[in-house]
Amino acid sequence: GDLDPEAALQPLLEVADAADLQSLLRDPRVKPFVLSAVSSTQAVVLPQHSKALLEALKKAGHTPKVRVHG
Description:
Elements: E1 12-14, H1 18-26, E2 34-37, E3 42-45, H2 50-59
């Protein structure tokens, strides 16, 4: 399916493995900041919560990489 053009402007959480995304979506420290999964390895993040999500990922033991597009 085609991505919503507005979704393309939203921050994305991207992981290497589908199981990793499912695990993150179940994590109560991460779940509140995620709008929806858009693929098996990507999820749209609520823009106003991008920094909070990064902190939650770090506290959960992950080492997020941030890429800025544009």
